[in-house]
Amino acid sequence: MTMMSSPENLGGRTGASGVTSRDTAADTAAAQARTAAAAAGVEVRALSDFGDLDQAVRLFARIWGRDANPPMNLELLRAFGKAGNYVSGAFADDRLVGACAGFFHAPSEDALHSHIAGVSPEMTGRAVGFALKLHQRAWAMDRGVDRIAWTYDPLVARNAYFNVVKLAARPVEYMPNFYGLMLDPVNGDGDSDRLLVRWSLRDPAVARACERPGEVRADPALAAGAVVALGTAADGSPEPGRLGGTTSLVAVPRDITGLRAAAPALAGRWRRAVRDTMTDLMARGATVVGFDRTRGYVLRRNS
């Protein structure tokens, strides 16, 4: 059965006079969220009762392999929702297959921080994560919030592609060992470096990305004339290149999760190499403008 998302009361804002004004961008975002949910075959909705919240806690624990110490607990999700923050789930035939939770920044920052999002492994390739993020975007815009921020591991190529290409979010800060030691099957036992990304919800590039629920290819023009700042050697190890280019490429492993299990020392070398290269490039004024699945991050420095 195919179901559609139902973002609550999206597209209209009630002012002090009690009159609801239309926000066409928010209306469009709500329509895009419904389209994405239909394409994924899920219903995306807010989670509030204990049964749904408990399902979300169990789902997060299963995804991260942390049954004894889930990355989120029931009490915190309940408090998030009660305080007006974002807590939602994606359902396929009444079964929770994805969940996402976030909290608001300081009032002056006009932003939501998306703290955690996960999709059941058996739903891989169904674009459930895309549907969740578009629901989150529509929900935030309906509340007058124009930015969402989150973090992700810069070594995870599939997440880099999803965030930078499919969603058109932009990494703005490299944060070494942001969470400290995490000790789970997803993160391994090394440093928890993260890239902080910002999603400008009304940016035309973001709006265009949200119209494309299927496969999206990176723009090859972004990498035209680029120099390799970090490449991959024949033995699969990181190979330093040149840092002085206007446009630079920074490679990452194809499957860092598998590499951590099979060759943890090599995974550690990749962590240090990507950290050193990206922090150096960003210190020189470069910003991430794209991600290529075979060549890695595309960074460009303004002249």
From TrEMBL:
This is N-acetyltransferase domain-containing protein. The lineage of its organism: Bacteria, Bacillati, Actinomycetota, Actinomycetes, Micromonosporales. Residues 1-26 are annotated as: Disordered. InterPro entries: Acyl_CoA_acyltransferase (IPR016181), BioF2-like_GNAT_dom (IPR038740), GNAT_dom (IPR000182), GNAT_N_AcTrfase_prd (IPR038764). It comes from the Bacteria. Coiled coil: none annotated. Residues 42-187 form the N-acetyltransferase domain. SUPFAM superfamilies: Acyl-CoA N-acyltransferases (Nat). GO terms for molecular function: acyltransferase activity, transferring groups other than amino-acyl groups.
